[in-house]
Write a structure and sequence with these properties.
The structure holds two protein chains of two kinds. In chain A, strands 2, 4, 5, 6, 9, 10 and 11 form a seven-stranded mixed beta sheet that branches. Chain A is an all-beta fold. The radius of gyration of chain A is 13 Å and the shape is globular. In chain B, a hairpin with a 4-residue loop joins strand 6 and strand 7. Classes of the chains: A mainly beta, B mainly beta. At the A-B interface, strand 5, strand 6 and strand 10 of A face strand 5 and strand 10 of B.
């Protein structure tokens, strides 16, 4: 158990819908990262937050947005869902915002868009 | 365009040493290289991290040459439970973008 929690574990929804994925970092960690993992794309970095502020953006679509709240939990919002958004979404947390640092991954949320 | 490349798959036998190499195109000057292990339906798990030369911990060694354009994860005496996907991770230039390699599926046979 990494100490990072993600809810829900599974999510099934329809195209065009909007969903929110939630992540609670390990106690004391200030950074939260979001990743998308699909069969054909591997692990893709989406976005990084540190202590409530956005630090870096990866290949995050404009239909996706995220935020980190004062209690340091984070939410990833996915809207106007398409079939291709079906994937595993992981969040990870770490103590700092820079190297050297270790990211601890949550168990993931499996999103299925029908 | 920053890219991190590693072999798609490798086979090995129990007790052998396995070396997985990753090339880090356009790695950031001050960035560390990190390797993760992932089992099916689980999140990746940290294995080892280094900046240059050699780092060793209780499960693996990491070799990084002086030019830091590649890294090699070394797993000594693998067992069946080491069958997993192994990913290298680095930072792309100064963009802050984290780049995972495409993952190497290691199959350990008895």
């Amino acid at each position: 158990d990494s100490g990072v929690t993600q809810t829900p574990k599974h999510l099934i929804t329809a195209t065009g819908q909007r969903v929110t994925l939630r992540c609670s970092p390990r106690s004391g960690d200030l950074s939260v990262y979001w990743y998308q993992q699909s069969l054909d794309q591997g692990l893709q970095f989406l976005i990084h937050y540190y202590n409530g502020e956005e630090r870096a953006k990866g290949n995050i679509l404009e239909r996706f947005s995220a935020q980190q709240f004062p209690d340091l939990h984070s939410e990833l919002n996915l809207s106007s869902l398409e079939l291709g958004d079906s994937a595993l979404y992981f969040c990870a947390s770490s103590l700092r915002a820079g190297d050297p640092d270790t990211q601890y991954f949550g168990p993931g949320t499996r999103l299925t868009v029908l | 365009l920053a890219k991190t490349t590693q072999p798609i798959s490798m086979d090995s036998y129990e007790g052998q040493e396995v070396n997985i190499t990753c090339s880090h195109n356009n790695i950031a000057t001050n960035d560390y290289i990190t390797w993760y292990q992932q089992f099916p339906s689980q999140g990746p798990r940290f294995i080892i991290q280094g900046y240059k030369t050699k780092v060793t911990n209780e499960v693996a060694s990491l070799f990084i040459p002086a030019d830091r354009k590649s890294s090699t994860l070394s797993l000594p005496r693998v067992s069946l439970s080491d069958t997993a996907v192994y990913y290298c991770l680095s930072l792309s230039g100064n963009t802050g973008k984290l780049i995972f390699g495409q993952g190497t599926t290691l199959q350990v046979k008895p």
